[in-house]
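I hope you will forgive my troubling you with a question about protein structure. Could you please explain, in whatever detail you think fit, how the C-alpha coordinates follow from the sequence? Thank you for your consideration; the sequence and its C-alpha coordinates are set out here.
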Amino acid sequence: MERKVIAKLQGVGIYHAENPNVTLTPRTREKAGEKVLENLDLEIAEGEVVYLIGRVGSGKSSLLKTLYGELPLVEGEAAIAEFDLAALKQKHIPYLRRKVAMVFQEQILLSDSNVHDNLLCALQATGWSGRATMEQRIDEVLSMVQLSDKGQKMPFELSGGERQRLIIARALLNTPAVILADEPTVNLDPVAADGIVSLFHEIASKGTAVVMSTHNASLIEKYPSRTLLFAQGKVSEVDIRGLISAKSSI
Protein backbone atom coordinates (compact mmCIF):
# COMPACT_ATOMS: atom_id res chain seq x y z
CA MET A 1 0.00 0.00 0.00
CA GLU A 2 1.37 3.37 -1.06
CA ARG A 3 2.00 5.75 1.81
CA LYS A 4 0.57 9.27 1.90
CA VAL A 5 2.97 12.02 0.85
CA ILE A 6 3.51 14.43 3.77
CA ALA A 7 5.85 16.88 2.02
CA LYS A 8 6.48 17.63 -1.65
CA LEU A 9 8.99 20.09 -3.06
CA GLN A 10 9.43 20.99 -6.74
CA GLY A 11 12.11 23.24 -8.18
CA VAL A 12 12.88 24.70 -4.77
CA GLY A 13 15.78 27.06 -4.16
CA ILE A 14 17.00 27.53 -0.59
CA TYR A 15 18.81 30.64 0.63
CA HIS A 16 20.55 31.69 3.81
CA ALA A 17 18.38 34.75 4.46
CA GLU A 18 19.61 37.50 6.80
CA ASN A 19 16.06 38.55 7.65
CA PRO A 20 13.72 35.56 7.27
CA ASN A 21 10.64 37.65 8.15
CA VAL A 22 10.90 39.85 5.07
CA THR A 23 8.75 38.87 2.09
CA LEU A 24 11.20 38.41 -0.74
CA THR A 25 10.41 39.33 -4.35
CA PRO A 26 12.23 37.86 -7.36
CA ARG A 27 14.43 40.98 -7.52
CA THR A 28 15.59 40.60 -3.95
CA ARG A 29 16.08 36.83 -3.96
CA GLU A 30 19.76 36.99 -4.86
CA LYS A 31 20.26 39.69 -2.20
CA ALA A 32 18.62 37.54 0.44
CA GLY A 33 21.84 35.67 1.06
CA GLU A 34 23.92 32.86 -0.32
CA LYS A 35 21.92 30.39 -2.37
CA VAL A 36 22.76 26.99 -0.92
CA LEU A 37 20.36 24.67 -2.75
CA GLU A 38 18.82 24.89 -6.18
CA ASN A 39 16.16 23.07 -8.16
CA LEU A 40 15.36 20.71 -5.29
CA ASP A 41 12.71 18.05 -5.91
CA LEU A 42 11.78 15.95 -2.89
CA GLU A 43 8.93 13.87 -1.50
CA ILE A 44 8.58 12.61 2.07
CA ALA A 45 5.99 10.01 2.98
CA GLU A 46 4.21 9.33 6.25
CA GLY A 47 6.10 7.02 8.59
CA GLU A 48 9.37 7.62 6.80
CA VAL A 49 12.72 8.37 8.44
CA VAL A 50 14.93 10.55 6.25
CA TYR A 51 18.50 11.45 7.19
CA LEU A 52 20.11 14.63 5.89
CA ILE A 53 23.91 14.54 5.69
CA GLY A 54 26.52 16.93 4.35
CA ARG A 55 29.03 19.54 5.41
CA VAL A 56 28.18 22.50 7.62
CA GLY A 57 26.65 25.22 5.44
CA SER A 58 25.42 22.81 2.77
CA GLY A 59 21.77 23.77 3.34
CA LYS A 60 20.43 21.11 5.71
CA SER A 61 19.38 23.47 8.48
CA SER A 62 18.10 26.07 6.01
CA LEU A 63 15.87 23.46 4.38
CA LEU A 64 14.49 22.38 7.76
CA LYS A 65 13.84 26.01 8.72
CA THR A 66 12.02 26.58 5.43
CA LEU A 67 9.80 23.54 6.02
CA TYR A 68 9.10 24.85 9.54
CA GLY A 69 8.15 28.32 8.33
CA GLU A 70 11.15 30.04 9.93
CA LEU A 71 12.64 30.95 6.55
CA PRO A 72 10.36 31.97 3.66
CA LEU A 73 10.08 29.88 0.53
CA VAL A 74 11.22 32.26 -2.21
CA GLU A 75 11.73 29.92 -5.15
CA GLY A 76 9.79 26.88 -6.34
CA GLU A 77 6.76 25.08 -4.96
CA ALA A 78 6.50 23.25 -1.65
CA ALA A 79 3.75 21.85 0.53
CA ILE A 80 4.01 20.13 3.89
CA ALA A 81 1.21 18.72 6.05
CA GLU A 82 -1.26 20.29 3.59
CA PHE A 83 0.23 23.79 4.00
CA ASP A 84 1.36 25.60 0.84
CA LEU A 85 4.67 27.15 1.88
CA ALA A 86 4.74 29.54 -1.08
CA ALA A 87 1.46 31.08 0.09
CA LEU A 88 2.14 30.79 3.82
CA LYS A 89 1.23 33.89 5.81
CA GLN A 90 2.59 34.85 9.21
CA LYS A 91 -0.77 34.20 10.87
CA HIS A 92 -0.77 30.61 9.60
CA ILE A 93 2.65 29.67 11.00
CA PRO A 94 1.40 28.67 14.50
CA TYR A 95 -1.04 26.25 12.86
CA LEU A 96 1.68 24.86 10.59
CA ARG A 97 3.82 24.19 13.66
CA ARG A 98 1.16 22.06 15.26
CA LYS A 99 1.53 19.64 12.36
CA VAL A 100 5.22 20.20 11.63
CA ALA A 101 7.20 19.92 14.86
CA MET A 102 10.83 20.92 15.24
CA VAL A 103 13.52 19.48 17.51
CA PHE A 104 16.51 21.81 17.65
CA GLN A 105 20.12 21.25 18.71
CA GLU A 106 19.59 23.58 21.67
CA GLN A 107 17.59 22.00 24.50
CA ILE A 108 15.24 24.91 25.16
CA LEU A 109 12.95 24.18 28.11
CA LEU A 110 11.23 26.17 30.85
CA SER A 111 13.93 25.93 33.50
CA ASP A 112 11.61 26.96 36.36
CA SER A 113 8.95 24.34 35.51
CA ASN A 114 9.01 20.59 35.96
CA VAL A 115 8.62 18.05 33.16
CA HIS A 116 4.84 17.90 33.50
CA ASP A 117 4.41 21.67 33.50
CA ASN A 118 6.69 22.12 30.49
CA LEU A 119 4.25 19.96 28.55
CA LEU A 120 1.17 21.56 30.10
CA CYS A 121 2.36 25.05 29.07
CA ALA A 122 2.92 23.82 25.51
CA LEU A 123 -0.60 22.40 25.36
CA GLN A 124 -2.15 25.60 26.69
CA ALA A 125 -0.13 27.69 24.24
CA THR A 126 -1.49 25.67 21.30
CA GLY A 127 -5.13 25.98 22.28
CA TRP A 128 -5.83 22.88 24.34
CA SER A 129 -8.41 23.08 27.12
CA GLY A 130 -9.94 20.70 29.64
CA ARG A 131 -7.68 19.55 32.43
CA ALA A 132 -8.49 15.86 32.08
CA THR A 133 -7.85 15.91 28.33
CA MET A 134 -4.51 17.65 28.77
CA GLU A 135 -3.42 15.33 31.58
CA GLN A 136 -4.23 12.32 29.43
CA ARG A 137 -2.18 13.68 26.54
CA ILE A 138 0.77 14.44 28.81
CA ASP A 139 0.67 10.89 30.16
CA GLU A 140 0.56 9.51 26.61
CA VAL A 141 3.58 11.39 25.28
CA LEU A 142 5.66 10.77 28.42
CA SER A 143 4.98 7.08 28.00
CA MET A 144 5.99 7.25 24.33
CA VAL A 145 9.41 8.67 25.23
CA GLN A 146 9.93 6.50 28.32
CA LEU A 147 9.68 9.37 30.83
CA SER A 148 6.52 8.33 32.65
CA ASP A 149 8.28 8.43 36.03
CA LYS A 150 9.91 11.85 35.45
CA GLY A 151 6.87 14.15 35.49
CA GLN A 152 7.82 15.96 38.69
CA LYS A 153 11.53 16.28 37.86
CA MET A 154 13.01 19.68 36.96
CA PRO A 155 14.95 19.96 33.69
CA PHE A 156 18.28 20.31 35.52
CA GLU A 157 17.62 16.96 37.24
CA LEU A 158 17.44 15.16 33.89
CA SER A 159 20.33 13.75 31.87
CA GLY A 160 21.05 15.18 28.43
CA GLY A 161 19.29 12.26 26.77
CA GLU A 162 16.26 12.65 29.04
CA ARG A 163 16.02 16.37 28.25
CA GLN A 164 16.06 15.56 24.56
CA ARG A 165 13.33 12.97 25.11
CA LEU A 166 11.27 15.65 26.87
CA ILE A 167 11.70 17.95 23.88
CA ILE A 168 10.56 15.13 21.61
CA ALA A 169 7.56 14.54 23.91
CA ARG A 170 6.67 18.23 23.54
CA ALA A 171 6.96 17.89 19.77
CA LEU A 172 4.53 14.95 19.82
CA LEU A 173 1.79 16.70 21.80
CA ASN A 174 -0.23 17.85 18.78
CA THR A 175 0.22 14.58 16.84
CA PRO A 176 2.37 16.12 14.10
CA ALA A 177 2.52 14.73 10.58
CA VAL A 178 6.28 15.19 10.60
CA ILE A 179 9.09 15.92 13.06
CA LEU A 180 12.05 17.91 11.78
CA ALA A 181 15.17 17.35 13.87
CA ASP A 182 18.28 19.49 13.42
CA GLU A 183 21.32 17.59 14.76
CA PRO A 184 19.33 16.25 17.75
CA THR A 185 22.15 13.98 18.97
CA VAL A 186 25.12 16.33 18.56
CA ASN A 187 25.46 17.16 22.28
CA LEU A 188 24.68 13.67 23.59
CA ASP A 189 26.89 10.79 24.64
CA PRO A 190 26.84 7.71 22.35
CA VAL A 191 24.34 5.75 24.47
CA ALA A 192 21.89 8.66 24.71
CA ALA A 193 22.29 9.44 21.00
CA ASP A 194 21.54 5.81 20.12
CA GLY A 195 18.40 5.96 22.26
CA ILE A 196 17.16 9.11 20.51
CA VAL A 197 17.56 7.67 17.01
CA SER A 198 15.91 4.42 18.11
CA LEU A 199 13.03 6.48 19.51
CA PHE A 200 12.63 8.37 16.22
CA HIS A 201 12.32 5.07 14.36
CA GLU A 202 9.70 3.90 16.84
CA ILE A 203 7.76 7.15 16.35
CA ALA A 204 7.97 6.74 12.57
CA SER A 205 6.62 3.20 12.81
CA LYS A 206 3.40 4.73 14.14
CA GLY A 207 2.99 7.03 11.12
CA THR A 208 4.84 10.27 11.91
CA ALA A 209 7.57 11.09 9.40
CA VAL A 210 10.96 12.09 10.81
CA VAL A 211 13.47 14.22 8.90
CA MET A 212 16.77 14.43 10.76
CA SER A 213 20.05 16.15 9.95
CA THR A 214 23.11 14.44 11.36
CA HIS A 215 26.85 13.95 11.02
CA ASN A 216 26.76 10.62 12.85
CA ALA A 217 27.29 8.00 10.15
CA SER A 218 27.54 5.15 12.65
CA LEU A 219 23.97 5.76 13.82
CA ILE A 220 22.73 5.72 10.23
CA GLU A 221 24.55 2.42 9.73
CA LYS A 222 22.90 0.97 12.82
CA TYR A 223 19.44 2.35 12.01
CA PRO A 224 19.45 2.45 8.20
CA SER A 225 16.90 4.50 6.32
CA ARG A 226 16.68 6.82 3.35
CA THR A 227 19.70 9.15 3.34
CA LEU A 228 20.09 12.41 1.39
CA LEU A 229 23.50 13.95 0.76
CA PHE A 230 23.74 17.75 0.51
CA ALA A 231 26.75 18.80 -1.59
CA GLN A 232 27.58 21.57 -4.06
CA GLY A 233 24.08 23.01 -4.07
CA LYS A 234 22.41 19.68 -4.88
CA VAL A 235 20.68 16.90 -2.95
CA SER A 236 21.09 13.25 -3.91
CA GLU A 237 20.03 9.96 -2.34
CA VAL A 238 22.98 7.85 -1.20
CA ASP A 239 23.80 4.50 0.37
CA ILE A 240 25.62 5.41 3.59
CA ARG A 241 27.23 1.97 3.86
CA GLY A 242 28.63 2.36 0.35
CA LEU A 243 30.01 5.79 1.18
CA ILE A 244 31.75 4.51 4.30
CA SER A 245 33.17 1.49 2.47
CA ALA A 246 34.49 3.72 -0.32
CA LYS A 247 36.22 6.03 2.16
CA SER A 248 37.76 3.16 4.11
CA SER A 249 39.19 1.63 0.94
CA ILE A 250 40.99 4.83 -0.08
Notes: The chain has a mean pLDDT of 90.
